[in-house]
């Protein structure tokens, strides 16, 4: 019994050493990324929550002013306009890209040959850097040698200048570019979920004489509901800090017609040096995201498949 006990203890210590060594190796690889994240993301985020209560301009003395920045925000005409634009942006991405990607993914499930090529074509824009996508579309809508000039030369007066420079449609033009880049990502996600659906359910539906639309509505959608809700969540969250496409294509213009919260925050912080004021905008964005994540977490707790 004593020998058996010593052998068992020895095996246990060896396993503990192996686990300890594995943990050490894991931390060795994780630590650099963790430190970068801590310095670049976490620390500035925490400081931003504190700076929102000050009037700091980025250089001078930091003065505590309480909630004055927030009071000023709700009197800011551009801030109110940015909120409206963010809501419009969210609604656009919750409808058009999702409807297109669901339809396309469902149609692709019926293609047996060359499906990988279609997936690659749809996903390719998502792999492009945002600056490259924006330059492509800037050239397409160039006022001197873009598609508008070509159409005009062929007798079709669709638009005389770039839609990014037209006040009434600039926000929707940028949404078109960002949606073109984003919807292929949704196609790949949805088609992956659709292939997890039990094929026998479709066979049973065929025996009952169900149409393609009925199979999509009563079989496909319910079975991919967790993936569908997940995409809704990420779109709602990503629509608030959206920045790159708007800033590259319009910088929030013309006349604030495409201004959103992130571009307004950037302008206040780096053009006007109102760091405290911009931190207040960032704080409101943070709490919005926190509320959305909490809502989805609550839905998961009460039984929703997310």
Q: Radius of gyration from the CA trace?
A: 26 Å
Helix content: over 70%
Query: Could you give the distance between the termini?
Result: 52 Å
Which secondary-structure class do the elements indicate? mainly alpha
Total strands: 0
What order do the SSEs take from the amino end to the carboxyl end, as H and E?
A: HHHHHHHHHHHHH
Unreliable stretches covering 5 or more consecutive residues: none
Q: Biggest β-sheet, characterized?
A: none
Number of helices: 13
User: Which descriptor suits the 3D outline?
Assistant: globular
User: What proportion of the residues form beta strands (DSSP E)?
Assistant: under 5%
Average pLDDT metric: 84
Structure explained in plain terms:
- The two termini are 52 Å apart.
- Helix 4 (115-127) packs across helix 7.
- The chain is an all-alpha fold and 306 residues long.
- It is built from 13 helices and no strands.
- The model has no long low-confidence stretch (mean pLDDT 84).
């Amino acid at each position: 019994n004593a020998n058996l006990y010593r052998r068992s203890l020895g095996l246990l210590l060896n396993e503990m050493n192996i686990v300890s060594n594995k943990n050490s190796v894991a931390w060795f690889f994780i630590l650099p990324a963790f430190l970068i994240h801590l310095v670049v993301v976490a620390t500035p985020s925490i400081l931003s929550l504190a700076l929102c209560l000050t009037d700091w301009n980025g250089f001078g003395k930091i003065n505590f002013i309480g909630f004055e920045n927030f009071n000023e925000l709700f009197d800011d005409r551009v801030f109110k306009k940015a909120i409206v634009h963010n809501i419009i942006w969210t609604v656009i991405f919750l409808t058009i890209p999702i409807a297109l990607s669901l339809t396309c993914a469902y149609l692709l499930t019926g293609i047996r040959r060359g499906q990988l090529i279609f997936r690659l074509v749809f996903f390719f824009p998502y792999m492009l850097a945002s600056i490259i996508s924006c330059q492509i579309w800037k050239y397409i809508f160039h006022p001197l040698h873009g598609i508008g000039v070509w159409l005009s030369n062929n007798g079709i007066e669709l638009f005389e200048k770039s839609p990014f420079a037209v006040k009434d449609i600039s926000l929707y033009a940028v949404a078109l570019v960002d949606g073109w880049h984003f919807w292929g990502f949704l196609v790949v996600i949805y088609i992956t979920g659709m292939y997890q659906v039990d094929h026998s359910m479709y066979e049973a539906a065929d025996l009952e004489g169900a149409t393609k639309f009925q199979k999509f509505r009563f079989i496909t959608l319910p079975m991919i509901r967790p993936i569908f809700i997940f995409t809704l969540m990420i779109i709602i969250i990503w629509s608030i800090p959206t920045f790159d496409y708007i800033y590259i294509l319009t910088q929030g213009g013309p006349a604030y017609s495409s201004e959103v919260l992130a571009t307004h925050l950037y302008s206040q912080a780096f053009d006007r040096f109102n760091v405290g004021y911009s931190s207040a905008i960032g704080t409101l964005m943070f709490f919005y995201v926190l509320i959305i994540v909490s809502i989805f977490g609550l839905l998961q707790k009460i039984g929703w498949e997310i």
